[in-house]
Amino acid sequence: MPLSCTLIINPTSGSYSASLVDRVMALLAAAGFSPSVLLTGGPDDAAAFAARACAEEDHPFIVAGGGDGTMNGVINGLVPGKATLAFLPLGTANVCARELGIGSVDEAVRRIIRQEARPLSVGVLEGFGVSRRFFLMAGAGFDGFVVEGVLGAEKKRFGKGAYLLSALRTFSAWDGRPMEVEAAGERRSCHSVIVCNAARYGGSFVLARGASLFEPRFRVVCVEGRRRRDYLRLALRVAAGRGAAGAGVTVFDADTVAIGGNKAVQVDGDFICHGPVTIRTLPDFARLVV
């Protein structure tokens, strides 16, 4: 029997087109799949569609078509341990595709057809009655304030440039307060912290070497320096391909992280809440096509 396959597609993604999706559908059908397409119309649809697929099928095969935000939405609708998940890169940054080494839509389709998969570990952030899963990273402090400060009109007009504009505003209205981070049996005073479930950050930049979607642990980047120039130095290191390292930065492994204070918190590029929050790993969450 043909293998049922649900494509959850974000039609506002940067490289989406109806003809492209039709071509993907034809390739999957020719390979013995029975594909169906659900187009999202709002920010909550991807999670709702994924939840419905899990309710209707014992072992759903779901393809998230869009950017990293679409993938995050799907992950937040899945029943843990039930689904096989694949990524179809139609977005702008597509960090997930870079982590998996997927260079094109055609390559993604070939991998879907091959069906080789590995257990995916994700993170769960909880605080102030909020519970949100993520697969790339969670950040509190500077990058949380940057994401919180992105204006909808600027994002619509400038795309990724809206984050740069927000970063400039965040630099101008500098918050020098520290916060306490508890992880791996130790307490640390940090200015910002990024809990990494993947090595890359913001595109092709490698922030946390050794972080992996398939390992039940995080690489935690604590920025201890509280000055603007500490962040400029870190940005230059990351841009040069050296990752997060050097004076004023501590990197370590953990499976649970408690973040104190009331700084802004983002996951996978979306503002969620202000601290305090607790973050833990959720291993064997789904099978991810590689």
TrEMBL record:
Residue ranges occupied by any DAGKc domain in the UniProt entry: 1-129
Entry GO CC: plasma membrane
Record flagged with keyword Amino-acid biosynthesis: no
Domain of life: Bacteria
GO molecular function: ATP binding; kinase activity
Gene3D superfamilies: 2.60.200.40, Probable inorganic polyphosphate/atp-NAD kinase, domain 1
Pfam families, A to Z: DAGK_cat, YegS_C
UniProt keyword annotations, A-Z: ATP-binding, Kinase, Nucleotide-binding, Transferase
The protein, known as: Diacylglycerol kinase
Organism the protein comes from: Geobacter hydrogenophilus
